[in-house]
Amino acid sequence: MNEKLKSEFVIDFRKHLSREFYLQPTEWVARNLIGKVLIRKVENQYVAAMIVETEAYLSENDFASHSAVGRTNRNKAMFERGGIVYVYKIYGVHHCVNFVTEVEGKGCAVLIRAGFPLVGIELFEQLGSNRRVERLLSGPGNFARGFRFSLADNGKSLVSEDLFVQEYQNFSDGEIGISQRIGIVKSKELPLRFYLRGCKSVSVNPRE
After folding, report:
1. What's 2-196's CATH class?
2. pLDDT per residue as tens digits for the range 52-61
3. Fewer CB in a 10 Å sphere around the end CB: N or C, the chain?
4. 3-state helix, strand, coil in the chain (%, to 5)
């Protein structure tokens, strides 16, 4: 894993994930986002990080999902066609960024919990200068803050040149851990958290 992280990364929009990627089953998307790179233009320059931890939120029998209560003004982006971002605020302070999945009306998304910084580290450090580089984007609040996500980004496309996900690393099933999701009360028994084993950017245990 460490050798893979050391390999040089080059931003190339031609390698971006198509809208079809996000229309697949949510658990599949959450698992296969591990090793992909989120890229965003911030302050006229690009920042990029490899996604290393995700959680799937489903539309059926998942009472931890925001969509479990039906469509509301807050969660309506979840019910759009996959391939856009759903941003919300927790505790009135931190933003969280999710990738909407599956077909319109389904109400599914993948929460991005952590990333490994690759490009634009100095911009990430502006909002987390007291952290080690590998921990700058650890945890969903830090991830969203590092990429400057806000409620104004809710509903934005993930297939634009200013915001997209690019192919990068492919990890085997043995390199990707699966566990229960973090910090929820309902449907907590579901094994819908995916993470890169042994990566120090992963937010919480288990990391192995």
Report:
1. alpha beta
2. 999 999 998 8
3. C
4. 25, 30, 45
Decide: 190 and 73 in contact? Cβ < 8 Å: no
What local confidence, expressed as pLDDT, does residue 1 receive?
Answer: 47
CA dihedral 55, 60, 66, 70 (to 10 degrees): 160
Q: What is the C-alpha to C-alpha distance for residues 113 and 110, in angstroms, rounded to an integer?
A: 9
162 token code pair: 């200013």
What stretches of 13-154 show up as alpha helix (H) in DSSP?
19-22, 26-32, 121-126, 140-146
Q: Quote the pTM value.
A: 0.93
pLDDT at 5: 57
Q: What is the pLDDT of residue 4?
A: 55
Q: Are 99 and 113 in contact (CB under 8 A)?
A: no
Q: Is 61 left (phi over 0), alpha (psi -120 to 50) or beta?
A: left
Residues of the chain with pLDDT under 50: 1-2
137 neighbors 116 (Cβ within 8 angstroms): yes
- For residue 191, say if its preceding peptide bond is cis, omega within 30 degrees of 0: no
| Positions of E strands within the chain | 37-42, 45-57, 85-90, 94-101, 108-119, 159-160, 163-166, 176-179, 193-196
